[in-house]
Amino acid sequence: MKFKEFKNQQDGQKNDISSILVKTYMTKNLITFSPKQSVMEVMQTLIDKRISGAPVVNKKNELLGIISEGDCMKEISESRYYNIPLAGALVEKYMVTNVETISANISIFDVATKFYKTNRKRFPVIENGKLIGQISRRDILKAALEVEANNW
Q: Which of 110, 95, 101 shows the shortest CA–CA distance to 53?
């Protein structure tokens, strides 16, 4: 099978379709949280690192869930409603555990469709049961800028 080649705008080299896979554009050095971390610590990290959420992993780097700004908002709302201090809240109680993951070997175009059809901001990338990266909407936008539109 022969794939249509495209020219990478950044370096002028020709590449095949394998260059437009998730593994090429995903973020590999991730900020992650543990289930026993406090939600307060998560909120501070989200603010400091200017991110909207991050994976929650165990010591084996296996994905347990994701915690996001929205999950933290839920904690803030519930803490006031139930008059419970924020300081005692743990990630494991507020993280989302039903997380859709993707493979590193799928096309950025397929992921763009997933983003378009869902309201997700990020997808964890899993290989052999381990978290190896994450792809975000912004990563897809960056990838699209590197690929010439007339060669899609």
A: 95
d(CA 8, CA 80): 52
E strand or H helix at 127: strand 122-127
Enumerate the domain spans of the chain.
Answer: 6-151
User: Could you tell me the pTM of the whole model?
Assistant: 0.77
* Token pair in block for residue 68: 């996001």
Q: Name the token pair of 121.
A: 């901001």
Q: What angle do CA 51, 55, 58 make, to 5 degrees?
A: 145
Q: Which H or E run contains 52?
A: none
In whole angstroms, what is the distance from residue 88 CA to residue 28 CA? 31
The tokens for 55 are 């994976």
- Overall CATH class of domain 6-151: alpha beta
- Give the pLDDT of the chain (152 residues) as one tens digit per residue: 333 322 333 344 444 555 689 999 999 999 999 999 999 999 999 999 999 999 999 999 999 999 999 888 888 887 766 666 666 789 999 999 999 999 999 999 999 999 999 888 899 999 998 999 999 999 999 998 887 654 55
